[in-house]
Write a structure and sequence with these properties.
elongated; mainly alpha; single chain
Length: about 150
């Protein structure tokens, strides 16, 4: 089966990549518990990240447009996009939960949700979550934990 998909039958490459993106968005969306619209955030971020990165690599012919190259590279790009999306949503949820009383006090004074975030704007707060979530991390199965 792998020989058939990775062989000269390039028509299956977009289908295989779409299935991988679908699986990654479902996984990442499920990890974003208690985040409103977690599945749509996952769909958007994983699709844009994977599509733009792989698209540029294929359009500039940095990577040959053959299934044997595009599918494995696409799977790596998709998995990194999934992990980053999950980490950003998890970090944002945890940080807002840690500052819950502060956010509620600002909301009770009539501020909007954007104004009530600890940094004054949700965009700045989310940017901090993005920065910390994209730092290199060792996985739990790493032979060097704690590094």
């Amino acid at each position: 089966m792998l020989d058939f998909v990775l062989g000269s039958h390039g028509a299956f490459t977009p289908l295989v990549l779409l299935v991988m993106i679908g699986t990654a968005t479902l996984t990442s969306g499920a990890r974003g518990k208690r985040i409103p619209g977690a599945y749509w955030i996952a769909v958007t971020s994983v699709s844009v990240a994977a599509g733009s990165t792989l698209g540029v690599l294929l359009l500039l012919r940095i990577v040959p447009a053959v299934p044997r190259a595009a599918i494995p590279l696409g799977s790596m790009i998709i998995s990194n996009a999934m992990n980053t999306t999950s980490l950003v949503m998890s970090r944002l949820r945890d940080d807002l939960g840690a500052h819950r009383r502060e956010v509620e006090a600002h909301l009770s004074l009539g501020e909007t949700a954007t104004e009530a975030s600890p940094c004054g704007t949700a965009a700045l707060y989310a940017a901090g979550c993005c920065r910390s979530s994209t730092r290199p991390r060792w996985s739990a199965s790493s032979p060097c934990p704690g590094r």
